[in-house]
Design a protein that fits this description.
The chain has 362 residues and is an alpha+beta fold. The protein has two domains: 165 residues, Aminotransferase class 4, branched-chain amino acid transferase, N-terminal domain (D-amino Acid Aminotransferase, Chain A, domain 1), CATH 3.30.470; 166 residues, D-amino Acid Aminotransferase, Chain A, domain 2. 26% of the residues lie in helices and 29% in strands. The strands form two sheets. Strands 1, 2, 3, 4, 5, 6, 7, 8 and 18 form a nine-stranded mixed β-sheet that branches.
Amino acid sequence: MTTPTIELKPSAHPLAAAEREAILTSPGFGRSFTDHMVTIKWTEGRGWHDGQLVPYAPIPLDPATNVLHYAQEIFEGLKAYRQPDGTVATFRPEQNALRFQRSAHRLGMPELPVETFLEACDALIAQDIDWVPAHGGEESLYLRPFMIGTEVGLGVKPSNEYLFLVIASPAGAYFPGGVKPVSIWVSEERVRAVPGGMGDAKTGGNYAASLLAQAEAAARGCDQVCYLDAVEHEWVEELGGMNLFFVYGNKIVTPTLTGSILEGVTRDSLLAVARDLGYEAEEGRISLDQWQRDTENGTLTEVFACGTAAVITPVGTVKRSGAEWRQSDGEPGEVTLRLREALLDIQRGKSEDRHGWMHRIG
């Protein structure tokens, strides 16, 4: 099946420059959206077709549309950064494209070709390039590619029609107010995902599964919830939307991928960046009891979370049933801050891109 070319149908009435600039002064996260979106259809027997860049607008859906009943939905998240010379580049978009394919396979959906994923993202950025914040800080243009099942009918089966879209939103810091450690509630009863399930697919259902536990964390005065494995309820896996890293002096460990942990692009990148900086970086198993014990005896020096939206966020306070402890005296750790700056410098074009991660637009 041929790869569709994106037909450009830009808006005749984009947002006025003054209004756009007002939004860019304090974009927040996921609050405002650019003037356009990209849509591509998939139909059984025809494949991918009708790729278009069109004005951002609501999606009309029949009440019996597949996604509304059986949740055939996947998504991705990646960022475009303004470079020092004024150009724009995305960070490792081919990895998002490959993960999008893996998510689609797990949910019985068609796999979008990598080149089509990249073409769609590039077309939207090129059209709405004035929405990419000026170089500096953490500001970026956040892209949200996603796909939904659009067949109309209540039969329980994979849809025979799908709609792929890309929308974009200017983004500031995910956690406003600078690099401040977050507090973590460890849920020892609820689980996010199970082996053989959809934990390693980026689908809305996984995030819906985290919302009650997130509310319970908030009720305990915590910013985020941490999940343990679903079998033994012992091994640390990840937060509701971020991967975790544990720092033992010069050694950095992140939980091993088990099929119930999302394979984060930032996670993979940090393993490489850490090794570039001379740290010993590896995957391994960390139990909740070990986390508490090693913090109390001083061998576990720092803990941080990472993801596309939040980049790197230090962990300050950890709470579990019957216990509470602090990491790095509740302050951002030295290794955490060093890794964070090193990754951001690559993304912002301030340091050498030795791994070839940045994808230039145009």
